[in-house]
Design goal:
heterodimer, A: alpha+beta, Thiol Ester Dehydrase, Chain A, five-stranded antiparallel beta sheet, 20% helix, elongated, B: alpha+beta, 4 helices, 18% helix
């Protein structure tokens, strides 16, 4: 495991997810209790004026935070702010990225985002990681 | 008008951060890391326990806000903001309540957009803050008109 505190400004951590599947969203509906059918049932998504089912914004936000999970012994996520800027559809391929933009003795400040296969941001924001 | 809702607060609701819920939640965001799900890994960690993923508080209950009427359809989740004093621990009790922090409107391309800021507070048994979770919900003019507000 790398040590997050050694990261320099301008460096980033990144990972690409498997294509979004219906089962991902069914599982998230169950685990989160958000059963809004626009996330799982095609006809309901169409009735709502969407071309197809879309991922829960919180599913994407939850995924994005996992970039930091391996560093739980270095510190914890103190602040995590996200703006939902684009919809995520079935089979989209998301890339998660966190770039260090500032640091102090106690805090690492990252710009974080998830982009789709067309390089469009679907969620973006910032995250403050407090070092122990 | 939603402005009248500002300040409305729910009563505190007791929750337990249940191991099985955390495990399922972590799995559903593709993050089945031992720090969330493996008891031994939790014991070895600096917290001495497993922790919950940062977006887990969505699962907790915070009681309903009396008098608040929101449409069931057509709401847009605009932003989500978490603040933690420390990670949430598996097995601990957390007392949650929600508050309407703000409501404001902005002109958008499709008419006036309403922004409702709801914040949930999670405290320990002694009333010390563990986390806050803020959601900004966008209510479009079309939706508002259908409700006559």
């Amino acid at each position: 495991m790398t040590v997050l505190k050694e990261i320099n400004i301008g460096e980033s951590v990144e990972t690409t997810l498997e294509p979004v599947s219906r089962m991902d969203l069914i599982k998230y509906s169950g685990s989160s209790g958000d059963f809004n059918p626009i996330h799982t049932i095609d006809e309901e998504a169409k009735k709502a004026g969407l071309p197809g089912i879309i991922a829960h914004g919180m599913w994407t936000m939850g995924n994005l935070a996992k970039l930091f999970t391996p560093y739980h012994e270095d510190g914890f996520i103190r602040d995590y702010n996200i703006r939902f800027s684009g919809m995520v559809f079935l089979n989209d391929v998301l890339t998660l990225k966190a770039e260090l933009v500032d640091k102090t003795d106690r805090l690492l400040i990252f710009d974080v985002k998830a982009t789709n296969q067309n390089h469009k941001d679907v969620v973006s924001g910032n995250l403050k990681f407090e070092l122990n | 008008m939603y402005k009248e809702y500002i300040g409305l607060t729910s009563s505190k609701t007791r929750n337990v951060v249940e191991r099985e819920l955390v495990r399922r939640f972590a799995e559903s965001i593709g993050d089945s890391h031992p720090i969330y799900i493996d008891e031994e890994a939790g014991k070895q960690s600096r917290y001495g326990k497993n922790i919950a993923p940062p977006t887990f508080p969505r699962v907790l209950r915070s009681g309903s806000i009396e008098g608040l009427k929101l449409p069931l359809k057509g709401l847009i989740h605009g932003e989500q903001i978490y603040h933690y004093e420390r990670p949430l621990l598996v097995g601990e009790e957390v007392f949650c309540y929600s508050k309407i922090e703000d409501y404001y409107e902005k002109e958008g391309s499709t008419g006036k957009m309403g922004f409702l800021k709801m914040k949930r507070y999670g405290e320990d048994l002694n009333g010390r803050l563990i986390f806050t979770e803020e959601s900004i919900i966008i209510i479009t003019e079309t939706v508002r008109r259908s409700l006559n507000v």
